[in-house]
Design a protein that fits this description.
Layout (H helix, E strand, L loop, with lengths): L6 H22 L7 E6 L4 H13 L3 E6 L2 E12 L2 E8 L14 E5 L4 H8 L5 E6 L2 E6 L6 E6 L3 H4 L3
Parallel strand pairs: 1-4, 5-8
Antiparallel strand pairs: 1-5, 2-3, 3-4, 6-7, 7-8
Length: 163
């Protein structure tokens, strides 16, 4: 099978999502955050999602976690951005609960040691919302004029998985 997307396309998509997320973060959050934990991609169709999954297989990326929204991959070679190396990528389902209008291209999940400070300072701002799960919570930043979101979990997923 010939893949219609390759490493260069993946790198370009990841760099775009990271750059846009950093700009969005800068509009609302003055405090420095830690490094990017992972980048999630929202495919626009099942065909596009299949192409991303096929590409992950062709790159020998390893699935390290799967949830209701799709697999998280550990890349064999990090993608370099102006804001650090990206080692983990999530390929979301087309009907992702995190992208109900299908108007976003992805999100960045950050690592931070100051989660409670950020929660207290920004939690009541209407640009922010929360996601809750068993033993975790995420401070989410979204703007309807942007096609990316910023997620700041109290426990970064890579750390929770032991990376």
């Amino acid at each position: 099978m010939i893949l219609s997307m390759g490493w260069d396309h993946l790198r370009d998509v990841i760099v775009t999502i990271v750059n846009k997320a950093v700009r969005l973060k800068g509009k609302y959050i003055q405090e420095p955050l830690g490094s990017v934990d992972y980048v999630a991609i929202f495919p626009k169709s099942n065909e596009e999602r299949t192409q991303y999954l096929d590409l992950m297989g062709a790159l020998s990326a390893k699935v390290v976690y799967t949830d209701h929204d799709g697999p998280l991959y550990h890349l064999p070679k990090a993608i370099q951005t102006d804001y650090g190396s990206i080692d983990f990528i999530k390929i979301c389902n087309v009907d992702s609960i995190y992208n109900p209008k299908r108007d976003q291209i992805g999100y960045v999940d950050y690592q931070t040691s100051g989660y409670n400070l950020l929660k207290d300072k920004y939690g009541k701002n209407p640009a922010f919302s929360f996601l809750y799960g068993k033993g975790w919570e995420i401070l989410c930043l979204a703007n309807p004029d942007e096609d990316v979101s910023v997620y700041i979990p109290n426990i970064p997923l890579s750390k929770d998985l032991g990376f």
